[in-house]
Structures are given as structure tokens and as C-alpha cells.
């Protein structure tokens, strides 16, 4: 399948907020972390208007100051604990299984790259029953909170003969587009996750409201 990726569009899917419909769990876990730090909760709308990476900068926008290293580590730990509790109730985004299956049957290849920790990501994707659709599933290694760009570079190195110039990254975050550009791939951004439509549109790549639209656009721009 990787060989076919040289000649057809290859998709690199994001996980959280894209394939997995978990934005409510993310906001809930964020507010749990804020509550333990004595901070007021935020709405989904404010989360989407404010979210950015590196994540300490996101907290800076909300706190009015950059958190100390100790504060960041504590809040990050609380967030992940609460997110894990909430994630079990999350489902895949509508139509995901059909989209992945149809892409595969059409002779295309696809992979998954997430900033969710690799050791947690792989069994989670397997749990949802979609792992066989991907030629690779890679999660974050190393500290949380940073950008996806270097991870995207390593992802393509592991993919081998998949040409980034014929690849399209589908994600829900500005950082997905930044990471795509870093390796010479294109990007389509989905409004169902972490960012507002206006935040995504400012990047200058296609922005869509459904994953079906994302796949259609990706096929048209993938080369």
C-alpha cells in the first residue's frame, strides 16, 4: 500500500478532535484542571477562540501570564487524568468508519499521527476498531504541549516512500497545517474540534465542516 502512496493522495489523519469526537471531553478536562488550580471554567466557544500550541501559551492567554514549569506540569497531569476518565464515553466522528474504508478500497493509503501519547494512542485506536485502515499509527513521544511539526517529519520518515507532496493532512488545529507545511504536504482543517472557524480560516488552507468534505477536498488538492 505504501507504494501506491507514491502515485495517489496519501492522507495523514489527526486523532483528537478529528477522527475522535472528544472536544467535550477535552473542554471538561481543561475545566477540571482549572478548578483544581482555583480558576473559573471556560466555555467551548472560548476554548476554540483561545486554543493554541505550545499549550502553555494557551494557558497564558487564559491566565494572563505564562504558568511556571511546576504549574504547567501539575495542570497537565490533572488534565490528562480527567481526560482519560472522560474519553471512554467518546465516539468516533460521524461517518469515520465508512470514510476510512472507502479511501482504502479506492486504492489510497492513509496513516494517523497524533499528539496524544503514543503508548496511549495505539491501544485506543485499536479499541475503536479502525487500526487496520492505517499503514502507520504514531503518537507523541516526549513531553506534551508542543508542536506537531517535528513529529510529522519523523512520521514521513517512517512512512518511507510516501511523497509529502502528494499527501494531505486532515486535522482540527492550526498546528496541523503548520506541521503539514513543515514537510511540504497540504492540509485541510475541520471545524469540529479545537478551533473556531475564523481561527482556522486565518491559516489560508481549506476549512470544512465535515470529514466527508475534508476527504473530497483532499482528493482534489492532493496531486
Topology record:
Layout: E1 10-13, E2 20-21, H1 23-36, H2 44-50, H3 55-63, H4 69-87, E3 91-92, H5 96-105, E4 109-117, H6 118-127, E5 137-140, H7 149-159, E6 167-171, H8 174-183, E7 186-190, H9 197-201, E8 207-208, H10 211-221
Parallel strand pairs: 1-4, 1-6, 4-5, 6-7, 7-8
Antiparallel strand pairs: 2-3
General description of the model:
The protein has 223 residues and is of the alpha/beta class. Helix content is 48%, strand content 15%. It is built from ten helices and eight strands. It has helices spanning 23-36, 44-50, 55-63, 69-87, 96-105, 118-127, 149-159, 174-183, 197-201, 211-221; strands at residues 10-13, 20-21, 91-92, 109-117, 137-140, 167-171, 186-190, 207-208. The strands form two sheets. The chain has a six-stranded parallel beta sheet, sandwiched between helices. Strands 2-3 form a two-stranded antiparallel sheet. α8 links the parallel β6 (167-171) and β7 (186-190). α1 (23-36) packs across α4 (69-87). The longest helix is centred in the middle third of the chain and has 19 residues, at 69-87. The model is unreliable at 1-6 (pLDDT under 50).
From the structure above, extract its key features.
8 strands; alpha/beta; 6-stranded parallel sheet; two-stranded antiparallel sheet; 223 residues; disordered N terminus
